[in-house]
Amino acid sequence: QVQLVESGGGLAQPGGSLRLSCAVSRSISSINAMGWYRQAPGKQRELVARINSSGSTTYADSVKGRFTISGDNANNTVCLQMNNLKPEDTAVYYCNSVFRSGYKWYNDWGQGTQVTVSS
Rounded to an integer, what distance in angstroms lies between the CA atom of residue 43 and that of residue 21? Predict the structure, then answer.
């Protein structure tokens, strides 16, 4: 199992930037995939960005060109740089890990961090 703690959320103006960080309890190089998801009020949780152990990344169409996911192996953190923020980016953002240990798969979540984009 993996413990995840998000930080960096807050209030930003449209066009502004925020950087989210996810502190991971084990070496991220040992984790199969790390991702950021978000859930807006009344909506389902959706994938924002994901990075796998080979460094390959995936982004939701709505954030391509604006958001960047990256991993820091030295500090066991995964970050989401969010630029050119839009009001529709307002949501609770969750860090996720998918980790395989032997024959068991673990899908863990952080507690979430609120991002609000408003003027």
Answer: 23
First to last CA, the chain: 40
In contact, 82 and 74? CB cutoff 8 Å: no
In the prediction, which pLDDT does 29 show? 86
**Residue 14: what residue type?**
P
Q: What is the pLDDT of residues 48-62, one digit of tens each?
A: 999 998 999 999 999
Contacts of 51 (CB under 8 A, 6+ apart): 33, 34, 35, 57, 58, 69, 70, 71, 78
Beta carbons of 25 and 80 less than 8 angstroms apart: no
DSSP string, 92-105: EEEEEEEEEETTEE
How confident is the model at residue 62, as a pLDDT?
Answer: 97
Round to whole Å and give the CA distance between 56 and 54: 6
